[in-house]
Amino acid sequence: MDLVLQLLFTGIGIGAVYALVALGFVLIFRATNVVNFAQGEFSMVAAYLMVVCVELGLPYWLSFVIALSGMALLGVIFNLGVYYPLRHRTYLPVIIATIGASILLSNSVLAIYGPQPQVLQGWFDTPGIQLGPVYLDSQYLLIIGVTILLVLFNFWFFEKTLLGKKLQATSQDKEMASLLGISVSTMIMITFIYSAVLGGLAGILVAPVLFVSIQMGSTIALKAFAATIIGGFGDVAGAIVGGLALGVIETFGAAYISVPYKDGFAFLVLIAFLVFRPQGIFGERVAEKA
Amino acid sequence: MSASDNMIPAPAVRSKPLIIRHLPYFIGAAVLVALAASMQFDGYILNILLQATTFSIAVFGLSVVLGLCGQINLAQAAFFGFGAYAVGLGTADLHLNFWLCLVGACAITLVAGAFLGMSTLRLGGHYLAMVTISFQQIVTLVMINAVGVTHGPDGVANIRRPELFQSSQSYLAFCVAMLAIVGYLVWHLPDTKLGRAMRAVRDNELAAGVNGIDVFRTKVSAFAVCAVLGGLAGGLFAGGFAYVSPDQFSFAESIQFLTMSLLGGVASPIGSVIGTGLLILIPEWLRFLKSVPGLYLAIYGLSVILIIRFMPDGIWGFVSDAFTRWRAHTKAPPVAGALQLKPATTGGDIVLEVTGLSKHFGGLKAVDGVDIAVKRGSVHALIGPNGSGKTTTLNVLSGLYKATSGKIVLDGTDITSMAPHQRTAAGLGRTFQNIRLFRSMTALENVEIGAERPGNTMIGKGDDALTERAMEALTFVGLGNRANELISSFSYGHQRLIEIARALASNPTLLLLDEPAAGLNSTEKLELHELLKRIAAQGLTIFIIDHDMTLVSEAAQHITVLNFGRRIADGESMAVLRHPDVVSAYLGSE
Fold first, then answer.
1. CB neighbour burial string for B334-362, b if at least 16 within 10 angstroms, e if fewer
2. Hey, which residues 90-129 in chain B have their CB within 8 Å of chain A?
3. Which residue, B232, B256, B280, sits at the end of a domain?
4. From CA A58, how far away is CA B228, in angstroms rounded?
5. Which residues from A are below 8 Å from B294, CB to CB?
6. Where are chain A's structural domains?
7. Is the distance from CB of B34 to CB of B177 less than 8 angstroms?
8. Is B291 within a domain?
9. Tell me: the pLDDT tens digits for B336-370?
10. Does the entry feature the keyword Hydrolase, yes or no (chain B) (predicted)?
11. Which chain B residue lies closest to A284 (C-alpha atoms)?
12. Residue B321 falls within a domain, yes or no?
């Protein structure tokens, strides 16, 4: 029982990271109708930025601010260089371009920094607290806390602010939004910046738990995408629930079934959902109008 | 539309058999094979040629799935690896015959490709991209971790070749021959029934479905063909290099295949060979790049973005575009005779019988308990104000929506629960309000897809009969002389006529026309009216939805009126149009 509780805690912690990246996926998908296959690389790049800054001797908080600012900048460059020129084409060229961007980002970091995985220390000096039978790692607590805060922020931002409503309007009907005087390209730019920062935040949070490596981006992205399908594609709540569920499933799978195939469980769950419930937990089937 | 009258019927010319027409290709291929077998290459060149040859076959697969069918596959290296391991483990560990292993490689990849495709291809393209990436990762995981079977990271050594091709030189010649054969098949594929179906699916899935194409099966076929070509290529690769290891079949290699395909031109096997050749040779010239890990792939990533942005059709696409424009001015094939419509008459007097048809979207009753009976040989119109449920009814009839309740019987066959392509096979033809043609194809190719409807009794066997039928249909609507032009060069009104020709070529039992007059100017409307008369004169039953009261009242003998999803009037045209409920629905009551 103790082990189950411990695994549950770890699973939710790692699931929260998937949920954050999945949220970034969903936001870009809703705004542009495109799945950004470089979303995971945002996490990886942010983690490396963090490592570089900390190694330069900067304080942790300052490194954090620099890394996230860097991500905002990357969001701008990504939008202008990858999405914007292709915005009038069908989805296929755009996803191929984002795949190209993902390869470019991960291998540029590899070329600059080399293949050695890096270690990033956690935010807190205390490693964690013992609560009854369960050991609560401080970094996992931080991840869960930040995720809860972000989900609340997200809700407030999209439902209660004018900017959030403009973003929603843009994602639902670009033509109508532009007729109402909303600058669609600005809204899409904001979405890319926000998603890049979200992905970066997830990367920085998870870095002390995993190693900082070139592969971390694609690993997280695959799980996050599986999470969005499990939750219901394009659904914000679905992304969060799917991410948490996947983290828990994977942690239990690694503990009770097989460690080397840990990364394979997400795929199996994904296939099961695609076959039996492709609309996910929260999604609805939609048909194209003739 | 009068063009059909002054068209002089020419006798049909039988074209020469394909084998004869393509003889130059086979002679060229034979020369290449002879060269590969006789020229003395040193080991380094030989390896590069062997790699280029086998990789090209794998990239052919991508030109089928991505170029022809518009579906993505980011796991081609995994299928390549399946083939390589099948031949590797089969010949080295199990001491099986090479040929047996090669066949096994194809069989395994066929099953794996079909399974992966079936699990995902009903869904949108994003799913396929992610699922293939996941599949690729899993395959790599298994190759590395299942040490007992795959030898793990050590890889498989001592892979054997067939007795016949023991020397590297002769094995290369064998691979070049395989490349030529597979290349020929892939090159010819777009002009086969399956190939046309793939292109139709790529251009417009909905229209493909209502023209009798099983969209899902077509996509799965394309995906499976791609996987098999990957497996075959992998098997040949393993025999060529005698040693394989997991890192040769990683995600990075899948991306390399994709880049090769995009660079050369995704739509053609010629592009595949160009792209593969370039991406194998260029890195050999720029070897210094390999000294920095990652730099090499970073450049690949950047090239993908740049190619997609600036050269979406690749190198070969650029060249062949010019050729297509030139071909548009070539003469259309001759027309043998006038279009014959012989609608099937298995059922009774009523061609289409709809009883109690309902379609609810959540709480909204878009169509609510509607009955319609369409008499054989008549023109029957369905009218009603905006939002009355007309188009929903048509979409339920053609199977794009599933009926909530009710029954649809077409010529004695219950089609209520059939998929769109099955209804088309049962004798339904339709056009769309917002025209849905296959944009990358010529007018003739569009109509050929219609003519290919399963169960079309009006065409004989072979491609010539198909072309003949399509030409007759195009001539019938007056566009026979522009058959080889691309859809984009036709005016809106003419595109509508091509859509009608596409439906007519299939010799349907019932023709559904969704607002055919929408967006037409007054001359075009008159021409449309004439065309409808000529169609009706051949005994084809027409079910038409339109707003244009003049067209409806002149063309239709029978009218059904919908309002708020319910039938409010039904009967002979003039009587229905004077019906007080109909008048008030359109003009408001006093």
1. bbbeebebebbeebeebbbbbeebbbeee
2. 119-120, 122-127, 129
3. B256
4. 54
5. 106-111, 115, 214
6. 2-276
7. no
8. no
9. 677 877 777 776 788 899 999 999 887 788 898 89
10. no
11. B362
12. no
